UniProtKB/TrEMBL annotation:
GO terms for molecular function: oxidoreductase activity, acting on the aldehyde or oxo group of donors, NAD or NADP as acceptor. Residues 27-472 form the Aldehyde dehydrogenase domain. SUPFAM superfamilies: ALDH-like. Keywords: Oxidoreductase. The keyword Coiled coil does not apply. InterPro entries: Ald_DH/histidinol_DH, Ald_DH_C, Ald_DH_CS_CYS, Ald_DH_CS_GLU, Ald_DH_N, Aldehyde_DH_dom, LUC3-like. It comes from the Bacteria. This is Aldehyde dehydrogenase. The active site is at 250.
Length: 476
């Protein structure tokens, strides 16, 4: 668990020593080199119980503060992140694997501060529903209590802030459980935040599956926020039933992108590439399957291949790299198996697909797979890595049908030179967010959530704040 201390402007080494246990702990290795980054504490369910009790005790005082007072603390938290930004980015790069540059580690740390400031700035006031001769009714939003936040390994700091910032803003206290793959990043983030936040309102407990399960079902936790797989989300739903716990679930994606026949392949190629390969493809709302009209199919494939060839991949601390390794061996094997199965089915490997397994690290090259059937596992299953299947279509109806065929619907995109036509197609896609001529561009002002089995509940913006509160009507 975390304690308060002053580490403004700390070095990477000081930051690491602040979160490592004095003795013991579990080694965390750099997925790019195999070197030991540091040791993560192995917290237990008993540690979780203590954190929840502390958060429960601190909540009434925190909840009694005004929105302006809580927002002031969020802005101080953003200041603390910015003062320690480089140390946080280096730790994140070494533990998660993502490069410092590009839309990666420094970008993620900067986004944490920006999201805190944006969340602090939203106005949320009681709403007058009616006020007439029959009486007056007001809608208020009260704190829920203790929020349990269970985060992923792909964007551990940023998604952690997506969870904790609105929860704290609305007067809740928070207990976070980071992924077992990236605990140091979240522990360090929480440690930095706790240099300026009131004691007891924010905790991080690093542990195994037993700790996560205990947090999800704990009777003293009023809401759970989870980002991760659909399978784990379903388990959380089941464990929440006995306490009728509130949930916000951002679950698996497999986002579709549709390129209309009037699009300019060269103009959209870089946007398509980063839509798919941001964080080396390890992003819930990344472009995971691309549907391109037959008239511009080959031109689009060629333009994408040219962009992919220019993107350097390697160790994250090398300032030249913008693509990194898969974060863990398990995810590497998923990507490798799916690409190999596509090869064996007769699909065309345009670029990549040939990892050098003699080198250290879980590096899989940026891979484009063309001439692949929509039913191929590389298309139908979420690969969550640097391999993009490109499917040819003949009619818009066919493309929309293929895009909507899966049981998930987190995000999607439409690419066209005609925005009105793109909007018409976007309206037919079953997804929580549909972008036009871009993909995955989340914004703190714009609510975000999934359709179908990609989860429920909203994050971001004023609507996201409301999902971290108990609505109460006062009628008189």
């Amino acid at each position: 668990m975390t304690t308060q201390s002053d580490i403004q402007g700390t070095t990477f080494e000081d930051l690491l020593s602040a979160v490592e246990p004095a003795v013991g702990g579990r080694e965390i290795k750099d997925p790019a080199t195999g070197e030991v980054v540091g040791r993560a504490p192995e917290h237990t369910v008993a540690d979780l119980e203590a954190a929840i009790a502390s958060a429960r005790a601190a909540q009434p005082g925190w909840g009694a503060l005004s929105h302006a007072e809580r927002s002031g603390f969020l802005n101080k938290a953003a200041d603390a992140i910015e003062a320690n930004a480089e140390a946080l980015a280096v730790l994140l790069s070494r533990e998660q694997g993502k490069p410092l540059n590009g839309p990666n580690a420094r970008f993620e740390v900067g986004a944490c501060a920006a999201w805190l400031r944006a969340t602090a700035a939203f106005e949320i006031e009681p709403e007058v529903l009616f006020d007439d001769e029959g009486g007056r009714a007001e809608l208020h939003h009260r704190p829920l209590g203790v929020v349990g936040a269970i985060g992923p390994w792909n964007w551990p700091m940023m998604i952690g802030v997506w969870q904790l910032a609105p929860a704290l803003r609305m007067g809740n206290t928070v207990v976070m459980k980071p992924s077992e793959y990236t605990p140091l990043s979240v522990l360090a983030l929480v440690h930095v935040l706790n240099t300026v936040l009131p004691e007891g309102i924010l905790h991080a407990v690093s542990g195994g599956r037993d700790v996560g399960e205990a947090l999800a079902g704990h009777p003293e936790v009023d809401k759970v926020m989870f980002t991760g797989s659909t399978a784990t989300g379903k388990a959380i739903i089941r464990s929440s039933a006995d306490t009728v716990k509130r949930l916000t679930l951002e679950l698996g994606g497999n986002d579709a992108g549709i390129v209309l026949p009037d699009a300019d392949p060269k103009a959209i190629a870089e946007g398509l590439f980063w839509g798919a390969f941001i964080n080396t493809g390890q992003t819930c709302a990344a472009l995971k399957r691309l549907y391109v009209h037959e008239d511009i199919y080959e031109e689009t494939v060629t333009a994408l291949a040219a962009v992919a060839a220019a993107m350097p991949m390697g160790v994250g601390l090398d300032e030249n790299n913008v693509l990194g390794p898969l974060q863990n061996r398990s995810q590497y094997q998923i990507v490798a198996n799916l690409v190999q199965a596509a090869k064996e089915s007769g699909a065309r490997i345009v670029t990549g697909g040939n990892p050098d397994e003699s080198q250290p690290g879980f590096f899989y090259p940026a891979t484009l797979v063309a001439d692949v059937d929509n039913e191929n596992p590389l298309v139908a299953e979420e690969q969550f890595g640097p391999a993009l299947p490109i499917v040819k279509y003949s009619t818009i109806d066919e493309a929309v049908e293929m895009a909507n065929a899966l049981e998930v619907g987190l995000g999607a995109s439409v690419w066209s030179s005609d925005k009105e036509k793109a909007r018409e197609v976007a309206a037919r896609i079953e997804a929580g967010t549909v972008w036009i001529n871009k993909h995955g561009a989340v914004d703190p002002r714009m609510p975000f959530g999934g359709a179908k089995q990609s989860g429920y509940g909203l994050e971001f913006g004023v609507e996201g704040l409301k999902h971290l509160a108990q609505p109460q009507i006062i009628n008189y």
